[in-house]
Each structure stands twice: as C-alpha cells, then as structure tokens.
Amino acid sequence: MKNKENQATLKRVLQYAKPYRAYSVAAFILAMGYVLFTLLSPVLVGRAIDQVVDTGLVRFEIIIKILVGVGICVLLASLCQWGMNVFTQKLSIYTARDFRNAAFARLNNVPLNYIDTHPHGDIINRMVNDAELVSDGLQQGLTQMIPGVVTIVGTLVIMLVLNPLIALVVVLITPLSIFVASFIAGRSRKLFVKQSQASGALSAYINETVANQTVVKAFGQESYCQKEFEKITDALFASGLKSQFYSSISNPCTRFVNGIVYAAVCVIGAINAIYGNITVGQLSCFLTYANQYTKPFNEVTGVLTQLQTGLASAKRLFEVIDQPLEIAETTCPQMPVKEIGSVQAEHVFFSYVPQKPLIEDFNLQVKRGQKVAIVGPTGCGKTTLINLLMRFYDVNSGDIKIDHISIYDMQRRDLRSLYGMVLQETWLQNATVGENIAYGKPDAGKEEIVAAAKAAYAHSFIKRLPNGYDTVITAGGGNISAGQKQLLCIARIMLTHPDMLILDEATSSIDTRTEMLIQAAFEKLMQGRTSFVVAHRLSTIQNADIILVMNNGHIIEQGNHETLLAQKGFYANLYNSQFAVN
C-alpha cells in the first residue's frame, strides 16, 4: 500500500516536470554521453596494459596514443556530466517552483475554514521547506538515476561480451544489494514522514510564539514556551535521528555486498587469466566494469534519504493542493447597478461545526443608507454575520441578497468590492506607508493617498515618521503603534470610497480624542452608504438607524436606541450594565 502511495506521489510530482521535458531529454542525452565515455576508458586502459608484453618489451608509441584517447574520454565525460547537472538542476528548480505556485494558488482559493483550523507555521513550512526538499529530491534522484541506469545496462552488456561466466556471477549476487537497500528504505519511509510532520509542528510553534512574544513576556511564560519547544524539538530529533540512521546504513550495507561482488570477480577472473581465457588487460577492464556496475547501486541507496524526504514533503504539499476549493463561482454573475445598499437575509442557518448550531433562521431587512449596529455578548454571532455578508464563509441554508440579488449570483471579487472593511485586528504588509494605504487601490496617486490619510487623521503622525509616506513598515507593523496601524487601515478604506461599510471595532486601539475625530470622519463617510458596525462600546452606536441585538445566533431585539431602552429588555440591561456600581 505504501509503495503504491509513493508511486502515485512520484507520478504526480513528475506531472509538474512535463513542461520541462526538453531539459530531461537533454540531460538523458548527456548522461548517455557521460556513460559512453566513462565505459570506453577501461577498455582503452586494458588495451594499454596488454601493450606491456614482457620485461623490456613495452610498446610506448601505442600506449601514448591510447592514453591520449583516455584523456579525451575523461574530458568529454566531464563536460557531459557538467551539462547533465545543469539541466537536471534547472528541471528540479522549475518543477519545484511550479509545485509551490500550485500549492499557493490553491491556498488562496480554499475556504477560510482551512486557514482558520491549521497552524499557520505548518502551512508556511509546507510552502517553503517542503517545496525545497522536493526540489533537492528531484535533483539528486535525476542526477544519480539517469546515469546510474545507463551505466548498469552498459556495463552489463560489455561484461557479457567479455566473459559471460563472470558477468553471470555479478548478476546473481547483485539482487542481494537491491534487497538490502529496499529493506532499509521500507523501514525509513515512515520515519521520514514523522520527521516532516515534526518539522511542520516546530515551524508552527515558532511562528506562534514569535508573533505573540509580547504576550509571552507579559505573562512570564518564557520557561513554559521553552519546555514546549524542547518537547517538539526532541520529537524532531528522535524521528530525524532514526530516519538518518536507517538511511545512512543502507550505503555501507550495499557497499559490503558490492565488495563481495568485486572479490568474486577478482577470484574467478584471476583463475581465467591463469588458464589463458582472458588477458591481464581484460581482467583489469573487467574489474573496473564490475566496480562501475555496482557503483550506481551505491549511489541510488545513498540518495534514498533525499528521495524519501522529498516524497514525504511532496505528500504534505499535495495535502494543500488537494484541499476542496470554495464553492464554485456562478457562471452568469449579476451585480446591482444603481442605488447599491439594501441588504436582505432570508432564513439563514449557519454553524462552524455541524454538531454545534450557531445562527438559526436569521432574517434581516436593511434599507440603503441605513447605519446598522450589531451588539450582543461575546460569541453571539456578530463577527460570524460579517463573515457571511462578505462570503468568507457560506451559509448552510437560506440566502443573503444585496438589492434583491443573491450574493451567490455574484462573483466573490465583485461582492467584496462593494464593501469597505475595517477590523479590530489590523493587517499591514512589509511595504511603505503609502503602499499600505493604497493596498485596495494600487493605482492611486500621491494626492489621493495623502487626502485619505488626512481624512483618517493619520497624516500628522505619518509626517513624523523618518521618511514620511515612504517609510517602510516592517511585517505586521512592528515599528509603529497599534493605534497608528489602525489609522492606516482606516485610511485604506477612506481611499477606496466603497458602496457599503463594515466596521468591526474599528477604533478599539485609538485614543479617545482621535476616536471622536475618526467617528466624525466615519459619519461623513457613512452618509448615503449602508453601514454595518460591530461595537462593544454601546455609546458609539446610539445614533444608529437600526440596532440588532444578537444572542445565540438570533436577533432577539431590533430598533433604534430610544426604542430599545423603552422596551427594558436585553439591550436595556446591556446598556445599563455600563453604569452599574459593584
């Protein structure tokens, strides 16, 4: 079963090498040339030895000509080997590049559920390290396999021509070497899979710990993190040690068997030489061929480590590539063309886990230009509702419509282009301040970017940065404050002028004075636009046209601030709890 899985994996990897078959053909031709010139040298050397007839009787003029031929063969063999290595390297690198691109393309099109439920460090490890190991495995395999197979066939033919009896001895003993190599490879295969898994777990833990180093230090958990890291490292060490041990003993074991082959050829060849069946030069040639015949077996077993690691890594990448895609886009997309902004949710059911229902029979009617505030306790479904509106997740049943057009009749890109979204969690790329603001509108001019920054009250702090709008922000925005990061994200939305807005605690990291200014800017931006505001501070949404009070996935109350307070229900209790005295 495992062999079939490995064969299937190898076939799939080779599919990515098909566009570069010209490199493989060139490498094969050069490998043939390399083997041809390599096999020709022992014949010439044997003839040179036979020119030493007796004491004082050495045919130097013939020997010199033969040695010149040997030199030419060595030179041509070296050139062929160099060219073969160049083409196999290109083939492996280009194949691994396409392999990695295919995995990343799939990663950009899988449901967000996959991203949310898999450690990000492990995903990164698959995209970087595993793809590199596949490249190394291909390069080593092709470099050793192509000339190895040709060498085995070529030397076997020549040995059969020179002396069938000795060739038969070599052929009979050789399967022992193959058996030893395959036996060890079978034992090491599982260990290499464990090694790849442990490597992914290590990358995931490092990524998680480094990204949250402030929290680790704040809670004094350095020692705990160190112990957890050591546990994962020990697991990687154990699997790596065993896999490397098994793979490393394969070469010495096959070399031992090959030594037996060489010794058998020596004994039988010497007996034949004594009886005059072969010359001394032919014996020397035969011994060289016997060594060359067994050498590829040594090289193949030596490269088994790389091949096993490459196959294990390829399987991990195929796990990403084989992930199901998001629900297919509609073939006849529709888009609202004017007065965009009315939203209808009709009998929506959704759950992240089938066994735990979250949103049940959810209904909502929002008119164009209304400001909709969504409040409720943690876990009630506020952010989930936003995810459904943007189609980050798809509903289990029911429908959501924009201007009476189902969002499932729109292309995802078109749907999401209708919204401008600012989340509590900020995201900035490793680029300049200007490029981060223009992320949603890459063709924006400098004046537009500055105007958006001023509207978000970010211009003043940007001008204080070392290079202003050309200041490079480190990955994740580590060189600016949390509030400044959020202002840049707000400026990004100000620049795009979306038809609708989604604000999920968009001012949570901003000081009170700046928040008041941002709220004023948002009020101006919201005019005429449908807006969904998720808020925990109820004071920020008192002027909303509609306040949706959610609990356990249901809208339990709906109305404006004054109406809900007058009902003296869940919202009133939630609002008054802000002023409760313990």
Task: Give an overview of the whole structure.
The chain has 582 residues and is of the alpha/beta class. It has two domains: 2-19 and 89-321, Up-down Bundle (ABC transporter transmembrane region fold); 343-579, Rossmann fold, CATH 3.40.50. The chain contains 19 helices and twelve strands. It has helices at residues 2-17, 21-50, 60-107, 112-117, 120-162, 164-211, 213-218, 222-274, 280-302, 304-321, 382-389, 412-417, 433-437, 446-455, 459-463, 482-496, 512-526, 561-567, 570-576; strands spanning 52-54, 57-58, 343-350, 359-366, 371-375, 397-402, 405-406, 419-422, 500-504, 530-534, 546-551, 554-559. Strands 8-9-10-5-11-12 form a six-stranded mixed sheet, with helices on both faces. A four-stranded antiparallel sheet has the order 4-3-6-7, with no helix packed on it. Strands 1-2 form a two-stranded antiparallel ribbon. Strand 9 (500-504), helix 17 (512-526) and strand 10 (530-534) form a beta-alpha-beta unit.
User: What is the count of DSSP helices, taking H or I runs of 4+ residues?
Assistant: 19
Shape: elongated
Main sheet: strands, sense, barrel: 6 strands, mixed
Q: Average pLDDT across residues?
A: 81
The number of distinct β-strands equals 12
- In whole angstroms, the N-to-C terminal distance is 66 Å
Give the CATH topology of the largest domain.
Answer: ABC transporter transmembrane region fold
Supply the helix-strand structural class. alpha/beta
Fourth-tier CATH superfamily name of the largest domain? ABC transporter type 1, transmembrane domain
Strand content: 5-15%
Number of domains: 2
**CATH structural class of the largest domain:** Mainly Alpha
Radius of gyration: 35 Å
- What's the helical proportion of residues? 55-70%
Poorly predicted segments: none
